[in-house]
Write a structure and sequence with these properties.
The strands form 2 sheets. The protein has a 3-stranded antiparallel β-sheet, with no helix packed on it. The protein has a 3-stranded antiparallel β-sheet with strand order 3-2-6, with no helix packed on it. The chain has 70 residues and is mainly β. It has a single domain, classed as Immunoglobulins (Immunoglobulin-like, Sandwich). The chain contains no helices and 6 strands.
């Protein structure tokens, strides 16, 4: 079984809708960002009360390394 990782994000702009959040990853050594499609190994959890959400990545591989932002 693979390991998992959870990345948290808090919205600072109260006008942003939690339903319109996006995640991006920039791989190590790359200048390009790629959009992460939720589903499969990528599971998003939303906490509307605290205006926060998280992305869990299951079955981590070396390919998952990089810098993530929301």
């Amino acid at each position: 079984t693979g390991e998992s990782l959870t990345i948290n994000c808090v919205l600072r702009d109260s006008n942003c809708a939690l339903s319109s959040t996006y995640w991006y990853r920039k791989k190590s050594g790359s200048t390009n960002e790629e959009s992460i499609s939720k589903g499969g190994r990528y599971v998003e959890t939303v906490n509307s009360g605290s205006k926060s959400f998280s992305l869990r990545i299951n079955d981590l591989t070396v390919e998952d390394s990089g810098t993530y932002r929301c």
